[in-house]
Amino acid sequence: MSLLELENVSKRYGRGLKERVALRDVSLEIEAGELVTIWGRRRSGRSTLLRLAAGVEDPDHGVVRLDGRNLAERRCEMLGGDIGLCRKTFSANEGQYVLEHLLVGQLARGISPSQANDRAWEALERTGAGNTARLTPTELDAGELVRVAIARALTLQPRLLLIDEPTIGVDVLARDDILQLLASLAADGLAALSTTGEATALTGARALQLSDGELHGRSTRDLAPVVPLRRMSA
Fold it and tell me: Which residues contact 180 (CB under 8 A, 6 or more apart)?
């Protein structure tokens, strides 16, 4: 049984002449310890796929399961627990400094202040963002924002990490490091699903293409090729 499974999932928005098919009969399986990246152009359905995988939205047809459990039935138990959805936006209501943003979600779930602080620092160090703890989100560059977003999700110790366009706006020289980070998290046993509109963001992952709501590529891990990580030249 796969950790994440989308089975014959379809999603539409609007009605009549304004109806748009975002996803059409999509099936996908992701295992623990695997990084999968969905490539697609704007309005291809990739963001919709990520929201369904997170349980933020329900499919019109088909089913999304995490560890065999239907997300539509157990959403509240999953998102923010087993599922870590990376948000690259930061609300002033959640704190002034990066460290505070990593604490607030944990404290809201009843984690003790000392344990929350330990988890926050561990997540920041794991993502290479330890030097951002005392900065405000507005002081971070695009690459640091991505690392902090991942760190915030990691504090809740998810089994599945979801992130939309992890390299968008990131300096070219820093993009490979972000992809290396995602690959290393998968190597540690985390399942990770990302979406991108940039072909250069596919390295280190099992890559599939989403076009007009239809998914192309190997939907399961078996024999699926992984786009090799690029090595930076000296």
Answer: 204, 229
Decide: 211 and 21 in contact? Cβ < 8 Å.
no
Which tokens sit at 195?
């979406």
For helices 98-108 and 113-126, the axis angle rounded to 10 degrees is: 130
pTM: 0.90
* Sequence-separated (6 or more) residues with CB below 8 Å from residue 67: 1, 3, 82, 159
**Which pLDDT does position 198 carry in this prediction?**
86
Tokens coding 234: 């000296």
Scanning the chain, the segments in alpha helix (DSSP H) are 46-54, 75-78, 98-108, 113-126, 142-154, 172-187
Q: Which domains does the chain have, with CATH numbers?
A: 1-80+160-170+188-234 (3.40.50.300), 83-157 (no CATH)
Here the tokens at position 138 are 């507005």
